[in-house]
């Protein structure tokens, strides 16, 4: 827990430094000409405060003044979290390529059948029901088109039918 | 007396069978749109607006009002059930709504939200009816310094009261404010913080993306880990007895709800502010004045009622600057404004004089819509609660799909979906290390307003920072914020000296 | 419900029959919903106008597929321009533009050349007027210039974001009259008008549509118009030209398409906007809002774009010298 606390504080410090570097592109000081801070001032100084506070947390934990105990991650379930994150990343990477109507059912299939070990009946009904809901709710009713990727040509007759 | 006549005419139109049907349909549709994370009244209104040229104008207004109210009620549903605020106005509702749902009191929380929304809507419609014209003048008094002071106040009422680690809270506030500056700097017209040269950052980081990421994906990852893959389903039931009990419980909250409505209406009425600061301030105030303030954040029913009355009151209030000044306070009111222009109405100070039928027709539609919304909502609560009884792995899978699609829908960019996963993982890690999420999300919502009004004031006053305290309204707000801000710092300092003494 | 289904069903069959009988390319029709990218965020003037077009198209059934507005206002339209340039040959996306169509690529290098896009139609030119609060003593342009000079640089001019149209008009004013104002940027024209009425700023160069409501209520006073001829809604307001100052500035409202859009598709959209510009709704709207509806298409429009880009390049460089 202590190590995680330090690592996160260090990561925040690194991120603040990165923000500050980006903010330096615009003036960060008091802009004499217009009166008031320049365009980079807000992000720069806020990140600076973040940097200092994260530093203080780091120092505090190095002094051992932390009241945390136990593991940061639960070793039994960390695996589950990591697999879900990987599955999400794969799904999102697939969306622009094979389209949401293949990527999302695939994700559901993995999650329900393989990860959740549910019955075929439940898995199939959700896999079929969800795309239908998405199409009729988002595309037909709300007119928000979801990415189709390769499957775009198959939707042309559907568009003709429902729009 | 003329006013009552107009209102009566308005009610007569809105109570015709066709219009009643439209109201019920509109409210139900709005409810589902609002309950979907990522979608809100904007989507509902945008879809319906072109249809309004086909139906008679009076029905069109009613349909729009119904969708608007339905979506406002619906926002609370996703905040309570899923812990994902569907709109920035419903952030404060998650603070206590989510814990209540986790304790199996989802039904009670939803009832509280519905009743509170109804009370908020009702009180503000009454205020609107009585004081619309004089209040418009007050709204004009609000220039950049007042806007800044008000946002500061909204911030401190909420943040100053937090009981978390002060250093971590400060980090999260700064992070939220820093993320809010991503995109284009309005004042200099230059792009800034365009990370990795991704064009997606040009439009900044939207509140929804952060909320869906940190609250939606992050929460699910957190639950997957803590539930030890043997998920405990929240035992949510709803019986008639509970419904009755819930309504009785609400009876106790008259004070909270009246305060919430007043704050909501007045803050919502100010052109720049809108419903989000209103809901936060109402939450903060309810916490200070409540007898059991230590229960806030752990599932206090007042913590649901206060922000819900305020955000509904504010969404009615925000119609005031739109109608009287022609200034939209939110994207939704901007769309409504567009609709009015297309119906050939000129919003502005003359509207009340030249088009009284329209104005009072709208107000009575609001009232009818509000009434229908509370009934439809109460009727649907068992359905919503039933959704929570799904097996955990099924619910998780569906919510993750909703997060992806709901994150994509508003901007239609894959960039935002990637950000959601990033915020989800980041939020999950930060939450595990006891970093509070709420200040981050709030800072992102209020940040742009704060920076803009601060810099506008300084430019207009040639860099004179005293401008903020030279004007009575802004000086008052700043003084109150200072008190709120200093309270926890004092507590923190006292805590430090005490721990030194014991060490 | 059954009615809409029936209608959908019949229109679907009609579409199928149509698709079967006409395979000739001349009768191109969109086969999926058309994306209308808006170069501005939700709620602004450009957004409202684009949505007005969408509604009229839908009401008059000018398109067989829905037109779906998508806001990509990030970076003063940089986001929209990049998006459009990444879709060459796409027949189902059009973009609603405003003057940031030229100014944004001029101000920051975003790797987009607007010459590559396919021009579709110019729908309107919006006008600019110099406004002051009706409570002020300023009645004429001379009063105005004198008041600004007397303020010694603290005169507050409100407008939209720096580098956008209002700031260019302000820069033109400053240059022409040798005056110096403090430019306060706001997020939208409506916000500017409200702050002018509330007395938080001293003057503005709002479009008439943004200030009309307040003007009719007697809260704002037009001083001079940046147009060659008087605006019909403000018959008593002189133009800058009448007062001896050659200051004219327009906000164009046009539609463009990605490069290499099929000529049949270009013809389809051009025809759609032609019909739109002749519609009764659009005619009344332009008259009421003091817009000039000067329809322009094809090569003429491209020539217009390039000419305007040149003018804006000069304006921007003179503005940078000035500041």
Automatic annotation (TrEMBL), chain A:
Instruction: Name the InterPro entries for this protein.
Output: DUF1468 (IPR009936)
Keywords, ordered alphabetically: Membrane, Transmembrane, Transmembrane helix
Membrane-spanning intervals of the chain: 7-30, 42-59, 80-112, 118-138
What residues does the DUF1468 domain cover?
Answer: 7-147
Q: What is this protein called?
A: Tripartite tricarboxylate transporter TctB family protein
- Lineage, broadest ranks: Bacteria, Pseudomonadati, Pseudomonadota, Alphaproteobacteria, Rhodobacterales
From TrEMBL, chain B:
Native source species: Yoonia sediminilitoris
Residue ranges annotated as transmembrane are: 20-39, 46-69, 75-95, 107-136, 148-163, 170-189, 201-222, 262-286, 325-346, 358-386, 392-410, 417-433, 473-490
List, alphabetically, the InterPro entries matched: DUF112_TM
Q: Where is the DUF112 domain?
A: 20-442
Q: Does the keyword Lyase apply?
A: no
Protein's recorded name: Putative tricarboxylic transport membrane protein
What keywords are assigned to this protein?
Membrane, Transmembrane, Transmembrane helix
Q: Which Pfam families match?
A: TctA
UniProtKB/TrEMBL annotation, chain C:
Q: Record keywords: Signal included?
A: yes
Signal peptide region? 1-25
* InterPro entries listed in its UniProt record: BUG, Bug_dom1
Quote the Pfam families the UniProt record gives: TctC
- Give the top-rank taxon of the lineage listed in the UniProt record for this protein: Bacteria
Asked if the keyword DNA damage belongs to this entry, the reply reads: no
State the UniProt keywords alphabetically: Receptor, Signal
Q: Which family does it belong to?
A: Belongs to the UPF0065 (bug) family.
Name of the featured protein: Tripartite-type tricarboxylate transporter receptor subunit TctC
> Whose protein is this, by species?
Yoonia sediminilitoris
